[in-house]
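Students often ask why inverse folding is considered easier than folding. One informal answer: many sequences map to the same fold, so there is more than one right answer. In these notes we will look at a single instance of the problem. The structure comes first.
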């Protein structure tokens, strides 16, 4: 029998539509956390990332089909391939949207578009092939169900390297840079939580059994991480914040991504608790000690959360959770942990090195950041000629 089972195909269609919620969710989440004068620019960059990568991926896929020929695939197989393409497009667009979060309030739109086009092809795509396309980490047995390394480590490490090379915002560390609209940020995080269920649970065409298990793991990890972050903040600052709670939920969503299809509810809760604690420390202590200006804590949330999730996958992945074998081999502890660490180190090194080379070359051609006057005025007016708020 040719093609894919109807149920996984239907779920992939639904989950791909859900995935698209993550991009406007990121736009709202990030838009609420910047200063009033930069809200439209900040919300626009994730949507530009979606548009840019969509065309890049789809034109690239059409070119590949043209070169390879039709291959005699059935109509059902062609439909499955198209859905996979859109799903992977959303993953690449999300990664680039996250990178933008580390650079907002100072990056030129033109530079972001050129950088994003090249980064998606030269940094993101090779890492995706490594772990999702049968590359060397996958050959070693490394597991990444829904992008802990492919999306989150690659984006987080890129954001850190770019922030260091491009430099901090004017007045960083000396002037207040408080979020202008926390309700906007909380709403965005809510959309991301809903979209993530489609994103992680719908990755590939796994059995409905595996998809259902991933859905449960996502919810467990996000809830545990939200409470973990809230508790840490409550202990340190005497009061919990709504932004802290949703930040914890996002950290949990990041950390469960590589493990979602391979762990049960109890390990997912442990992963969530760890994500809330580790990411809270990275955002509130490590960043202050090292002094880098990652505008919206992409490194602390995504590189740290994704790294913990990849390592935790090596500790907790269990064959019985994913018996169909559709998403890689399970070697068990301690080999699986070693395979996960090798993948993490490889992705960290490649993303950092390639991003540094790419930025160094581009800076010889065009300036990455706006002028001092434009940064003071605000990027909404300076880059777009618009005002988000009067």
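Output (designed amino acids):
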């Amino acid at each position: 029998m040719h093609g894919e089972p109807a149920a996984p195909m239907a779920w992939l269609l639904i989950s791909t539509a859900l995935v698209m919620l993550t991009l406007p969710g990121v736009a709202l989440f990030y838009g609420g956390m910047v200063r009033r004068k930069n809200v439209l620019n900040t919300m626009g960059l994730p949507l530009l990332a979606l548009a840019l990568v969509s065309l890049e991926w789809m034109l690239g896929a059409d070119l590949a089909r043209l070169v390879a020929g039709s291959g005699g695939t059935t109509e059902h197989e062609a439909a499955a391939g198209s859905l996979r393409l859109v799903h992977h497009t959303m993953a690449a667009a999300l990664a680039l949207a996250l990178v933008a979060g580390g650079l907002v309030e100072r990056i030129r739109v033109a530079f972001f578009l050129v950088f994003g086009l090249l980064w998606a092809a030269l940094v993101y795509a090779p890492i995706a092939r490594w772990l999702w396309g049968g590359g060397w980490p996958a050959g070693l047995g490394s597991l990444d169900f829904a992008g802990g390394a492919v999306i989150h480590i690659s984006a987080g490490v890129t954001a850190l390297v770019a922030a260091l090379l491009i430099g901090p915002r004017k007045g960083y560390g000396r002037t207040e840079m408080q979020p202008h609209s926390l309700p906007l940020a909380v709403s965005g995080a809510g959309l991301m939580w809903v979209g993530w269920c489609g994103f992680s649970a719908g990755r590939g065409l796994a059995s409905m059994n595996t998809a259902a298990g991933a859905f449960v793991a996502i919810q467990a990890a996000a809830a545990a991480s939200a409470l973990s972050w809230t508790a840490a903040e409550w202990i340190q600052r005497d009061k919990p914040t709504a932004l802290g709670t949703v930040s914890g939920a996002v950290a949990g969503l990041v950390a469960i991504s590589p493990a979602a299809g391979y762990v049960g509810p109890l390990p997912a809760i442990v992963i969530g608790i760890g994500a809330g604690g580790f990411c809270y420390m990275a955002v509130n202590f490590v960043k202050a000690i090292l002094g880098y200006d990652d505008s919206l804590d992409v490194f602390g949330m995504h590189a740290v959360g994704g790294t913990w999730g990849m390592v935790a996958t090596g500790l907790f992945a269990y064959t019985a959770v994913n018996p169909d074998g559709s998403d890689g081999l399970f070697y068990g502890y301690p080999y699986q942990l070693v395979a996960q660490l090798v993948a993490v180190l490889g992705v960290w090194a490649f993303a950092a090195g390639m991003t540094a080379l790419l930025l160094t070359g581009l800076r010889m051609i065009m300036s990455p950041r706006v002028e001092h006057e434009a940064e003071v005025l605000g990027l909404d007016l300076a880059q777009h000629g618009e005002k988000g708020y009067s």
